[in-house]
Amino acid sequence: MKQENMIIVLPIVGTILIIVNYFIYGIKQTSSTIFMLSIYSLFLGSFFFTFGAWIEKETVRGQIESMTENVCVYIIYLLVMKP
User: Domain limits at 11?
Assistant: First the structure.
């Protein structure tokens, strides 16, 4: 499924599920479900935006150190090993 289609389909499916939940369980359970989904999405968003940024920073730092080390070894090889 293409991303454009998923962007259109997911809110429709979510709305249908909430309406079905309302007709089966009533307003109290539906409002509780919406509240819990809001709390989960808030936690997930804040968790991934903060922890993901830290992981990305550590990954880039490691890549920079590795590249710097490789360049330094290459420069030393050119200056010392080659006459």
Answer: 3-81
d(CA 81, CA 59) in angstroms, rounded, equals: 32
Distance CA 30, CA 47 (A): 26
Amino acid of residue 66:
S
Per the rule left: phi > 0, alpha: psi between -120 and 50, beta: everything else, 55 is alpha
Among all chains, which residue has been given the structure tokens 């359970």?
29
Domain count, the chain: 1
pLDDT tens digits for range 11-67: 899 899 989 999 999 999 889 988 998 899 888 888 777 888 888 888 898 899 888
What is the rounded CA–CA span in Å between residue 80 and residue 78? 6
Query: Of 35, 34, 39, which is closest to residue 18 (Cα–Cα)?
Result: 34
Residue 1 has pLDDT above 70, yes or no: no
